[in-house]
Amino acid sequence: MSRLSRGTAGAIALVLLTGPALLVAGPATAATNLPYSDPKAKGYIAFCDSQGQSVSGGNIKDLPFVATAISSEPAPAGYAVKNGKATLYAYQPRQGVDPGEWSSQPLSGSSIYSNAKHPMASVTTADKPLEQILQAYPARWDGLLQLRMFYSAPNMQPYTIQYPATSIRVTGDTWRIVDGGTVPCNVGKAVSIETILLPPSSFPAPSKVAATASTPTGSTPSADTTGSTVLAGDDGGQPTPASGDSDGALIGLLAVAGVGVLAGLMSWIRQRSVRTP
To answer: For the whole model, what pTM was predicted?
Structure first.
């Protein structure tokens, strides 16, 4: 083989070996797979549950929808102050309509956040579950809803010039993130003004219809080729039997079988003793 041929063969081999790695090495850009773009969106919103774990999906009937929503972006100038507040909204994407004209409803009350680098909104059981939002504004465009976070502060107008935003896709009774990312759940705290102003009777007990998909704090949900977040253990909401239950059932069966064998052996011994002169 000539020197040129050997070099060509080596280059081809290198491409074949490293090509797939090169294709998957770049970061996922799920947002580019959305059928719409929002020029005012800056950064994303991450979600956490009451145990301080990052949440990437759940059931639309869960109350609350999530425990906290966290911005990946700092509060704008003038809103990084004491008693600065953040509020989470759900928007209904509509094809052919400017994002500024989409219908919306709040998903949380205004929340005082402790860390202006990552403003947070607390979602309580006094807020509506996602199911009720969808009844008013169905996710008609590819099952998508856009969630936005807006800011307010004392003696300031609500800030809506730019906002962090995350889109979720609703399928049946479940939802999942299709763009965005995670923020460590321990970056700060949020106190909803609902817990300050409303009586305890306004807060029903939390409820979970099905297990939500969570990712460890600080990790990033993986995405499939369509940009939808892949939920670990996503099996349509069917619970997975606990390993302890399976072990207990197996031990029970073995115990029953052992008792049967022992009874048979004792019967054989008694019969043997009777027959012996």
So the answer is: 0.66
Nearest of 214, 191, 211, 193 to residue 202 by alpha carbon: 193
pLDDT of 156 higher than 90: yes
Burial 127-153 (b: 16+ CB within 10 A, else e): bbbbbebbeebebebebbbbbbbbbbb
Q: Are 217 and 184 in contact (CB under 8 A)?
A: yes
Q: Which parts of 18-73 are beta strand (E)? A: 45-48, 54-55, 57-59, 68-71
Which two three-digit tokens encode residue 158?
Answer: 């609500």
DSSP conformation class of 18: H
Please state, as a whole number, how many other Cβ atoms lie within 10 Å of the Cβ of residue 68. Answer: 27
pLDDT tens for each residue of 57-85: 999 999 999 999 999 999 999 999 999 99
- How far is the CA of 87 from the CAs of 25, 28, 156, 188, 250, in angstroms? 36, 28, 15, 15, 51
CA dist 53 and 51 (Å) reads 6
Residues 6+ apart with CB under 8 A from 24: none
pLDDT digits (tens, 9 = 90+) for 29-45: 344 589 999 999 999 99
Report pLDDT digits (tens) over 113-141: 999 999 999 999 999 999 999 999 999 99
Q: Which of 241, 220, 218, 238 lies closest to 229 in space, CA to CA?
A: 220
